[in-house]
Structure formats: structure tokens, C-alpha cells
Amino acid sequence: MNNNKAIVQDMIKEIQSDRQSISMMEVCGTHTMAIAKSGIKDLLPDNIKLISGPGCPVCVTAQGDIDAVIELVQQQDLILATFGDMMRVPGTRSSLQEARSQGADIRVVYSPMDAVEMARTNPSQEVVFLGIGFETTAPPVGASIEAARAMQVSNFSVLSLHKLVPPALEIIFSDPDIKVDALICPGHVSLVIGLDPYRELVNKYQKPCVITGFDDSDILQGILMILLQFRQQQYRAEIQYRRAVKEDGNPVAQSVLKRIFKEVDTRWRGIGLIPGSGLEIREEYIEFNARYKFNVPDIEDVPIKGCSCGEILTGKISPHDCPLFGSACNPLNPIGPCMVSHEGACAAYYRYTPLRGEIR
Amino acid sequence: MCLGVPGKLMSISENNAAVVDVNGNQVEISTALTPDAEIGQWVLVHAGFAMQVMDESEAEESLALMLELQKIRESLLYEQ
Ligand code: SF4
């Protein structure tokens, strides 16, 4: 996208002159981070509010699921391969990082294929990949399962805690306690799922959904596209981030999702059970399902005392409203996942707007 | 977590193993999810996979769309 200064200034002026009262949710944690970094919120007039949503995969992972992972690494002799974001997320008793310092073999990888390779080169060891993420991440994980089967790597498996974004958005739009007039939709989830899931949401709730990119100019343009829909009083699902997102998404990635996973009900932090919002590995690939291979326990959610991540993930409050924010809870001593994850709302606010008192 | 970075496809070999150039770094990825991607194209890379071929002309189109939006807004302002 052209970062032409004059155009950006024009867009800011245009947004500032708008008098409509509208609250928009940026669904995706990467947007939360980009918005906090850019200072865009400070430029918005008081009538336009941006609130953070549930699009941080680490943050929405249920407490019980995190505890189950920690129990898995403490009780079984295996290598756990995970994306780095998960390491410091607090479980009820410890984090993966603490479990590692107590001897568990936990390794940070960049790609699920690294875990397949790790399994191939350590044939006497079981390697479990911790599958956390949305529609962007689940296809690479599915493709890795297919690769492991093709290469006959039988000591590789996945604990799938993947989640689907549209069912959570349905909750956001339908909950009367959550006041969201429009969605700034996640750029990278959408490059897999395309425009159709948002069309359904718009048809049902008559609220704008605009798939937006991550540059400052992308975000400003996304906001303008939403404002325009309100002025025209015609609500649509649209793509601002056209250089990456195609209308029908990525059909190859969608078919990998369908082949490897089935939709199941799953728990989200702060929201609870959402029907059809989780991805479990199909029976056809059961030998790659760590949940069965190692009898991973089902653990109840015990909320973290004093942490309001749940309310933050559903846009009910802002990180600044949490009494622990910045004092008892900070990036060096995070109490909840929203402060741990790089794209968690608390971490983003702490880094870029640590002192602001008001909610915007 | 859903972070994606653009990279230019430098080579594709067997089993969809490919190399992309991301800001001057050569990164090994898989093109299993973008089987039509060709050497020289830009792809969006996430978790070691190319997730989508990026369309440079769309960037210009995006600009055109913005100018179009401006026109619509202006016409709406006149109506008011
Ligand atoms: S500031 Fe810390 S304790 Fe408060 S909601 Fe965020 S992560 Fe939880």
C-alpha cells in the first residue's frame, strides 16, 4: 500500500471530520498491536471508538487447556514443540517455561514442519506439536500432518487447540452487553477464509465488516470504508487488504482444513463454550492426534484471580480498567495471557500507551 | 501469532520445499498451500508456509479504490 504522506493526512482529516458515533472492534491481535504502535487512537475524534477483540490465539486459549498441556509435559516423556508465544503463559500452577526449567523438553519452533523434522531426526522420541492458532495457522499444521504421513514419521503428533474466528464474531455481534457497530476484520485469517463468512455475518446483523491490512494507511482506509458504509446506510463485507486477500480466500488451505480437521465445540477464555468453533483432528488421522496418543486430560477452567483478560477479549473493558494493569501485572511479571502474548491487548497497551487512564 | 511477512520466491524444489527472500534473509518454506506460486512472485509467509500469492497490482488498485471512495464521500457531502 502506498504510504504517501498526503493521502494519509487526507484520510486522518476525513476521519476527524466524521460526526457519527461508532464503535469498531479490531478483531485481530496484530491489529491491536499495529494500532497501539501507530498512535491512531489518539487521532480519532471522541465519537469514533476502537476496541480490541478476541483475535489473540494465545489469549483466548482456555485456562484448563493450558493446564492440560503443562500436565502433559510433566507426566510424559516427550518433546513438546511450540511457537514461542506460549512459553510464558501462566497455567494455574506453572508456565511452560517453568516446566522446562524443571526438566521438561520443550522446544520453540517457527514452523510445524520443524517439529516434523525434529521427529524424523529423533526417531526414538515422541514429538508433540502444540497446535494453537486460528484459520491462518491451522492449514500449515494440517499440511505438516499430511507431510508426516507421507514421510511415515509416526512419532509426530499434534495437540490441536485451534480455533475458528467467525463463530466468535457471531457471539460478539449477538451479545447485547457488547457494543460493537462494525468489525475491522483480521487480514491473515481472511486470506484463508475469504469474504463469504463475513457476508453471512453482515446479512444477519447488518453491521459492516472490512478485512483490513496492517500498515497505518491500511488501517485508516479500513476505518474510512466502515464510516462510509454508515453514511450510505448500506452494510457490506469488503476487502481493504486486497493485495493479499482474495474474495474466495485460499481454497487449497481450506481443503487441507476440511481433510484433516473437523469442527467441534470448544472453550474460549472469557467467552466460554462456542459451538463449532474448535478444530479437532479427524479419526482418519488419529495416529497424529496427541490427545488420544497420550490421553491428554480434560481440565476445568480455574480463572486467574484478579485478571480481566476475558472481559478485555470481548471488548467489555479496556486494559487500563484492570486494577492490576501496569502494577502487579506487567510484561516481566505477567498475570494473564493478554499481558504475555506479543499481540495481547494488555501487552500492546503497556508497551505503547501505559499511562492513559480513559477508555477510548 | 497470525503474523505474516511478505517474501519473494527465489526457488522451488521437490515436495514444495521453497526458498523465499524476506528482507534479504533466505528462508526455507513450503509452498504446499500455494501450489500455483511461481518463482519471482511475492507470497505472504506464515508458520513456514506460503499462505497466499500477493498481488502487486492490487496495491495500486487499493489506491484507486481510495480515490474512488473520496469521490463518493464528496458527493455525499454535497447532498447534505
Ligand atoms: S493487565 Fe494483567 S491481570 Fe489485568 S487483564 Fe491484563 S493480563 Fe489480566
Structural overview:
- The complex is a heterodimer of chains A (360) and B (80).
- Chain A is of the alpha/beta class and 360 residues long.
- Chain A has 2 domains: 305 residues, 3-Layer(aba) Sandwich (Rossmann fold); 44 residues, no CATH class.
- Helix content of chain A is 41%, strand content 17%.
- Chain A has 17 helices and 11 strands.
- In chain A, helix 12 links the parallel strand 8 and strand 9.
- In chain A, helix 8 packs across helix 13 and helix 9 packs parallel to helix 11.
- The radius of gyration of chain A is 21 Å and the shape is globular.
- The mean pLDDT of chain A is 92.
- Chain B is an alpha+beta fold and 80 residues long.
- Chain B has a single domain, classed as Roll (SH3 type barrels), CATH 2.30.30.140.
- Chain B has 1 helix and 5 strands.
- Chain B has a 5-stranded antiparallel β-sheet with strand order 3-2-1-4-5, with no helix packed on it.
- In chain B, a hairpin with a 2-residue loop joins strand 4 and strand 5.
- The longest helix of chain B is centred in the last third of the chain and has 24 residues.
- The model of chain B has no long low-confidence stretch (mean pLDDT 81).
- The interface between A and B is large, with 55 and 34 residues.
- The site of iron/sulfur cluster has 15 residues of chain A, from helix 15 and helix 16.
